Amino acid sequence: MQLLDIRNLTLELSTPDGMIRAVDRVNLSLKEGEVRGLVGESGSGKSLIAKAIMGVLHERWKVSADRFNWCGQDLLRLPYHEQRRIISRDIAMIYQEPSRSMDPTSPIGEQLAEAIPDHLLEGSWWQRGYYRKKRAIALLHKVGIRDHAAVLNSYPYQLSEGVCQKIMIAMAIAKSPKLLIADEPTTALESTTQAQLFRLLASFNQLKGTSILLISHELETVARNTDTLSVLYCGQLVEAGDTATLLKHPLHPYTHALIKSVPEFQPDLGFKQQLYALHGSIPTLQHLPIGCRLGPRCPNARKECVKTPLFERQQNHYFSCHFPLSGKTNE
Amino acid sequence: MSNLIEVRGLSKSYQKARGMFSRHTVLALSNVSFSLAAGQTLAIVGETGSGKSTLAKLLVGIEQPDSGEILLAGQQLNCADYQKTNHLIRYIFQDAARSLDPNQKIANILHDVLRYSTVLSFEQRERKIADTLKLLGLLNEHGNYYPHMFSGGQLQRVALARALILDPKILILDEALTALDPSLRAQIVNLLLELQQKTGLAYLLITNQLRLVRHIADQTLVLHKGISLDYGDTSAVFENPQHEYSRKLMKSIEY
């Protein structure tokens, strides 16, 4: 079943220099039990999209979309309270930098207990406290923290980043959400802890059928752990499709460059050989190029590229480029 | 082959006060030895608290070791000779945006570096700055820019310029590539590789990114709780780690 279906999501911010379009007509859809990766560089609007789904963007942002469906209901057209109710019931998010997004003034036990909704607790109201604590401990065990007594009584600053990240996950799964958004979950972690975290996310996906939206800028980790992939560049969706086919036959020059810049995907690349890189750097939001935003950096840009390319489809593979790298034009 | 830098039995511990009278010691590094030749790259991998950054600090002379010696081209390195050696070993910090003074133009930052460590005249300094900016693919006009006017990749280039302007022999990169975006990282990696080929610079790469280590490092040293576990050629360490911890670390690459 289609869980999330977003069409032409646009996020705009009005500044003294005029409207800035940070996210430009992005499509995103998620089925039940699907793990989708969202890849892009910093400033490409990945986190903005996540926040828009959660409905926690600052009110200065103008959110508009042709369709913003959650389980068949258009969230943007619902009254505010209804919208909040649905989101808080079904969607959970793991934020960037876990130790900074927790309350520094209260112990972990309290914060975790707060995240458990009442309707998931058994027993009458006077037994709630007991069951709540029991459930908090069970949650900690589930995310792989064995020493629950010490963790429940400590404050976020006393714990390592890896443990904080696990607690964030425990809070997120406390309400058994249908969709879990993980925003750069591994940037602050060691590589051994990263591996643990991905195993944990994969087990939730398989055991409970939770859909996961994995946001990251590291293509290699995302590629390993997702079924489908969306690639963003500067707020435009450049390519989307199955992870495997997308990695094998990228149609957009940006995806191509992204894949080629990772030594791991290039088995023929010699030791210490130069990596493939696009020249130039990411434009700032105030000076975005018109049309395809990759234009100035694109190796095969032509005159037509000043017009924004439409989102085209080749079976299950979507891309937006006038001159895709292979397929279409040759056929 | 002569070694540019050789480290023998380096140890460092920190004293921490516990209560009013008692203290306890934290062993940050114990008995670490390695050597690095010109034109080579040594990667130091390990989790936080493994003593990676302490090692870097000892090498640049921010801290003094408890025991052990650091030989730079056969000569012992002392903290007191800081003036003599600081242009040979340079350090690049993790966050380029936060390690540059926001109030100073790039040219001023670079002038300061040269003024404190060399005896060049103003014109010579100007020429040196122009050369260095060109080497790193920046324009001469960039000297008049303030740090906030640069993008992330360019800032990392400026940080590199500040390190390379003194023609060092060794460059210590403390997680300098971690925060960069993939396409910018490829650019900077290319730049580093090119510089190494051109000038025979040696790199000490402190990082968490094992995949990158496999591509650019000649040797790898695995640190765990201040103890060096595996040390040797990168391919040997990656394919055949000797210790339990290193094995776990190498396995984590598959996720």
TrEMBL record, chain A:
<dbReference type="InterPro" id="IPR013563">
    <property type="entry name" value="Oligopep_ABC_C"/>
</dbReference>
<keyword id="KW-1003">Cell membrane</keyword>
<dbReference type="InterPro" id="IPR003439">
    <property type="entry name" value="ABC_transporter-like_ATP-bd"/>
</dbReference>
<keyword id="KW-0547">Nucleotide-binding</keyword>
<keyword id="KW-0067">ATP-binding</keyword>
<dbReference type="InterPro" id="IPR050388">
    <property type="entry name" value="ABC_Ni/Peptide_Import"/>
</dbReference>
<dbReference type="InterPro" id="IPR027417">
    <property type="entry name" value="P-loop_NTPase"/>
</dbReference>
<comment type="similarity">
    <text>Belongs to the ABC transporter superfamily.</text>
</comment>
<dbReference type="Pfam" id="PF08352">
    <property type="entry name" value="oligo_HPY"/>
</dbReference>
<dbReference type="Pfam" id="PF00005">
    <property type="entry name" value="ABC_tran"/>
</dbReference>
<feature type="domain" description="ABC transporter">
    <location>
        <begin position="1"/>
        <end position="259"/>
    </location>
</feature>
<dbReference type="GO" id="GO:0005524">
    <property type="term" value="F:ATP binding"/>
</dbReference>
<protein>
    <submittedName>
        <fullName>ATP-binding cassette domain-containing protein</fullName>
    </submittedName>
</protein>
<keyword id="KW-0813">Transport</keyword>
<keyword id="KW-0997">Cell inner membrane</keyword>
<dbReference type="GO" id="GO:0005886">
    <property type="term" value="C:plasma membrane"/>
</dbReference>
<dbReference type="InterPro" id="IPR003593">
    <property type="entry name" value="AAA+_ATPase"/>
</dbReference>
<dbReference type="GO" id="GO:0016887">
    <property type="term" value="F:ATP hydrolysis activity"/>
</dbReference>
<keyword id="KW-0472">Membrane</keyword>
<dbReference type="GO" id="GO:0015833">
    <property type="term" value="P:peptide transport"/>
</dbReference>
TrEMBL record, chain B:
<keyword id="KW-0472">Membrane</keyword>
<keyword id="KW-0997">Cell inner membrane</keyword>
<dbReference type="InterPro" id="IPR027417">
    <property type="entry name" value="P-loop_NTPase"/>
</dbReference>
<dbReference type="GO" id="GO:0055085">
    <property type="term" value="P:transmembrane transport"/>
</dbReference>
<dbReference type="InterPro" id="IPR050319">
    <property type="entry name" value="ABC_transp_ATP-bind"/>
</dbReference>
<protein>
    <submittedName>
        <fullName>ATP-binding cassette domain-containing protein</fullName>
    </submittedName>
</protein>
<dbReference type="InterPro" id="IPR003593">
    <property type="entry name" value="AAA+_ATPase"/>
</dbReference>
<dbReference type="GO" id="GO:0005886">
    <property type="term" value="C:plasma membrane"/>
</dbReference>
<comment type="similarity">
    <text>Belongs to the ABC transporter superfamily.</text>
</comment>
<dbReference type="InterPro" id="IPR017871">
    <property type="entry name" value="ABC_transporter-like_CS"/>
</dbReference>
<keyword id="KW-0813">Transport</keyword>
<keyword id="KW-0547">Nucleotide-binding</keyword>
<dbReference type="InterPro" id="IPR003439">
    <property type="entry name" value="ABC_transporter-like_ATP-bd"/>
</dbReference>
<dbReference type="Pfam" id="PF00005">
    <property type="entry name" value="ABC_tran"/>
</dbReference>
<feature type="domain" description="ABC transporter">
    <location>
        <begin position="5"/>
        <end position="250"/>
    </location>
</feature>
<dbReference type="GO" id="GO:0005524">
    <property type="term" value="F:ATP binding"/>
</dbReference>
<dbReference type="GO" id="GO:0016887">
    <property type="term" value="F:ATP hydrolysis activity"/>
</dbReference>
<keyword id="KW-1003">Cell membrane</keyword>
<keyword id="KW-0067">ATP-binding</keyword>
